């Protein structure tokens, strides 16, 4: 019978060249990487909205659709920042990210509301094969809104609850 592979090395058998774990530094790196992802992703989101052309259903439909498609990148960054703040125990950052995530979920819902006002115009503007593309864009944007706005809201609430539990434990 062969011996199973060991996933965690015994500290007594420390190979040469390894270093001591440093979780605080690791979480700082996660935070910095998250900041970079969030900055790039949110910049891309903001650039999709510039220059603004309110009142143009085509612009509103296309802007919401394209900017919501780019949400995975800033989401990874924002959640990495939140995780870093929680892991390092930086209270003000956890509070700021929690409030920010809740606010961001509301912004997405407002953008989606704007999007919904343009859907009838978009559906009425095309026929045939392009209509399928419009319908797919509507379904995709709806799914993205529910998934991301819901996730941001939940993450913000969980962050605030974490702070409350930490306060009770520390009191």
Provide a descriptive summary of the structure in words.
- The chain is mostly helical and 171 residues long.
- Helix content is 78%, strand content 0%.
- The protein has helices spanning 23-48, 57-69, 72-88, 91-125, 129-170.
- Helix 2 (57-69) packs across helix 4 (91-125) and helix 3 (72-88) packs parallel to helix 5 (129-170).
- The mean pLDDT is 91.
How do the SSEs run, as a string of H and E? Answer: HHHHH
The radius of gyration computed from the alpha-carbon positions, rounded to a whole number of angstroms, is 22 Å
Number of helices: 5
| N- and C-termini, Cα separation | 54 Å
Instruction: Please tell me what the overall shape is.
Output: elongated
Percentage beta strand: under 5%
Query: What can be said about the biggest beta sheet?
Result: none
> pLDDT average, as an integer?
91
Unreliable residue runs: none
Number of strands: 0
Instruction: Assign the structural class, choosing from mainly alpha, mainly beta, alpha/beta, alpha+beta, or little secondary structure.
Output: mainly alpha
Q: Percent of residues in helical segments?
A: over 70%
């Amino acid at each position: 019978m062969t011996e199973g592979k060991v996933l965690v090395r015994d500290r007594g058998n420390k190979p040469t060249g390894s270093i001591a774990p440093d979780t605080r530094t690791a979480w700082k790196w996660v935070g910095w990487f998250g900041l970079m992802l969030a900055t790039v992703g949110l910049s891309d989101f903001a650039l999709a909205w510039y220059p603004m052309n309110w009142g143009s259903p085509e612009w509103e439909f296309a802007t919401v659709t394209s900017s919501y498609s780019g949400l995975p990148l800033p989401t990874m960054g924002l959640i990495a920042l939140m995780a870093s703040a929680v892991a390092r125990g930086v209270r003000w950052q956890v509070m700021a990210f929690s409030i920010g995530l809740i606010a961001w979920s509301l912004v997405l819902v407002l953008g989606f509301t704007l999007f919904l006002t343009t859907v009838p115009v978009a559906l009425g503007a095309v026929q045939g094969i392009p209509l399928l593309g419009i319908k797919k864009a509507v379904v995709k944007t709806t799914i993205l809104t529910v998934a991301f706005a819901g996730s941001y809201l939940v993450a913000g609430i969980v962050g605030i609850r974490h702070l409350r539990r930490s306060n009770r434990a520390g009191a």
